[in-house]
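Aim 2 progress update. The chain analyzed this quarter is reproduced below.
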Amino acid sequence: MAEKMKSGAVGEELEVARGIAEDLRARGLFGDAAPGYYIRTFGCQQNEADSEQLAGIAEAMGFVPAPGPEGAKLILVNTCAIREHAEKKALSVIGTYKHVKDADPGVIIGVGGCMAAEAHRAETLKRSYPYVDFVFEPSSAFSLPSLVRDAMGGTRRFLSAGANGIAEGLPKVREKAYSAWLSVMYGCNNFCSYCIVPYVRGRERSRRPEDVVEEAKRLVDGGAKNITLLGQNVNSYGKDGDFGCGIAELMRRICRIDGDFELRFMTSHPKDASDELIDVIAEEKKVVKHFHLPVQSGSDRILAMMNRHYDRERYLSVVEKLRARVPDVTLTSDIIVGFPGEEEKDFLDTLDLMRLARFDMIFSFIYSPRVGTPAAKMEPQIPRDVSAERMERLLALGTALSEERNSRFVGRTLRVLADGVSRTDPGMMTGRGAPARPVHFPGGEELTGKFVNVDITGSGAFWIAGELSEKE
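Predicted structure tokens:
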């Protein structure tokens, strides 16, 4: 492909895929005109990173970006399975592509991502969506050339198993040259009772540190100012291999790369949040002082039922160490409301933990049963109206905490990476810094992708704003 795929964990399959891609490109696929591809992505940052690979492979086959599904010759839907709503939304979108296929039977439609790795959803796609040509699991993205080739020959393929290894060197098409996702590992070994991820993304597989550092250096050389390390449980990086390098050491190696850039990481599991990792956040200037540390619940009883492998005391001890070493840290978290068996006392424990931890921002979700997970069979399942009422209280507290935490930035000058013009106000820019919320300030498109200093003049629960600073 465009970047040579390295042999290794998935062996000869990579070379075969590369050869097919080169052959399809040489043959011109659909005649003289370059065919278009369109990718619709649902879900998390890892899915966004996966879609960058899919785009790279599509272009290696000779496709070019299309503005929408109409007119595209290759349509890919990268799905999410974390909640039922995400799956239903993806299925709804896939349903709208029937008219595209009806208008042009030569269009190829593929479905990938986490939902595609669920056997019952793959069967639904096979039986009820006959215009879908193929389905592939997240770890099988590199097989896209063979799937496209077979679809061109009229063969439908529905894969039931993904690859066990890691496909290094796949080409990527990044949306922004100055901001990049960098996957350091794949899969998860935790088996939280509510979570489908280990079943659809497989066991933990860490990339070799030299491969990660090499990619990070290419990103910096290519103009990346913001790099976010990704993994389902990023702080267990390296535990599945003999690299002699964990996530803390990996971050230190990346920080030694010459260049003006910032380093972030997500998502972390509290049981693996080590003192060494906290030291890296405190000591490395290039590491953004932000720690996303999902707690999910403040009740020890519920945490045990969730199979989280820590209790509230352990979680709060990590927070205490973090704030002692990095007093100004931005701390964000995930919380599930209405987990099976959650009583009012359990929910009050969660509110209490929120007050103690003083989160800058929370991402909260009403529990959604996932077929195949232990929690889906737990009793009692909490009525929707009870969960919704608890969610309202949780959001009210979260908003109050965010307002309090954001106010500490007023009167300070923050260094932020300008990330484009505001969608609602063309005279305003948004920027990323240590705060959980984007920073808004007057400016033009010419600042995009540059670091700027902003004097913060105001804040609220959901916003931080200021003026460009004259300070260097």
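The two ends are 44 Å apart (CA to CA). Residues 410-468 form a domain with the OB fold (Dihydrolipoamide Acetyltransferase, E2P) fold (CATH 2.40.50.140). These observations will guide the mutagenesis experiments scheduled for the next reporting period.
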